[in-house]
Write a structure and sequence with these properties.
The chain is of the alpha+beta class. It contains 3 helices and 6 strands.
């Protein structure tokens, strides 16, 4: 689903991931907290997002059809490592590249905020 970042469906999506996990090690609550954090920030109303399995993507593009020229942030919760992988994409949305930042949940808010500021500055609508 590609909708406004503030859409509550993202929390439902990751709660379902967590509820359907195969083992106790497959903990998706950190991703739930990450999405809640992003949704609570003042910039949330300016952003859109979509999920791709375990990946959460945030962008300034309101739809897939309009993503050309928009950058995005890819957030992946690597539950086996208990770390987040963050990627900054300049090609519209998904790129196959190594993470720019790998961090534990305690450092995620600062890392995401820096990425979001970069994203907002790159928006073609600014």
């Amino acid at each position: 689903m590609w909708v406004a970042l503030q859409d509550p469906g993202f929390l439902v999506f990751y709660q379902d991931f967590h509820d359907g996990r195969y083992s106790r090690d497959e903990d998706w609550e950190p991703m739930l907290r990450a999405v809640r954090y992003l949704q609570s920030q003042p910039y949330a109303s300016e952003l859109f997002a979509f999920t791709s399995h375990a990946h959460f993507h945030v962008t300034t593009a309101p739809t897939f059809e309009t993503c050309a020229g928009h950058h995005s942030i890819g957030i992946t919760w690597a539950f086996a490592e208990r770390r987040f992988h963050l990627r900054y994409h300049t090609d519209g949305w998904i790129a196959d590249q190594p993470p720019e930042i790998v961090c534990e949940e305690t450092a995620l808010a600062v890392a995401m905020d820096a990425f979001v500021q970069r994203l907002l500055m790159s928006s073609p609508t600014r």
